Amino acid sequence: LPGFPWHQLPNYLTYIRCLSIPIFMVLCYYPVSFPSRAPVLSLIFALASITDWFDGFLARRWDITSPFGAFLDPVADKLMVSTALILLAGRYGGIVAIPSAIIMAREVGVSALREWMAQQGKRDSVKVGMQGKVK
Questions:
Q1: Quick check: pTM over 0.85?
Q2: CA angle centred on 60, ends 55 and 64, rounded to 5°
Q3: Cβ atoms within 10 A of the Cβ of 13, count?
Q4: CA distance 65 to 126
Q5: How many whole angstroms separate alpha carbon 35 and alpha carbon 69?
Q6: Of 82, 81, 84, 85, nearest in space to 52 by CA
Q7: Phi first, then psi: what are they for 104, rounded to 5°?
């Protein structure tokens, strides 16, 4: 593909992850008679997770990180995870709602801390480490 803008591939992968969220939602509410719903939803979530890793890998490997990509990547990640948690809590109730609320509260807290540290000019002191990625 000689005309493909390879330098934009990490951002395109992030866009695809963002676009997968409404697809994930629609399939989650597809009629109950859809027997392969759980495996299909699992596949969508797994592919989103893989693209989350892969776009960061490519951006760092090719040294093509961008401020927009650095902004959108964690937003897409949080939107996908929070959407999945909310949909699971809606389907299964309190047994999933409490852990979901804890996970989402942690995500909001970490995001708020990062934003505050950025305003203090100390963004690098709260960079994402391997422990945060593995969590």
A1: no
A2: 85
A3: 22
A4: 18
A5: 37
A6: 81
A7: -70, -35
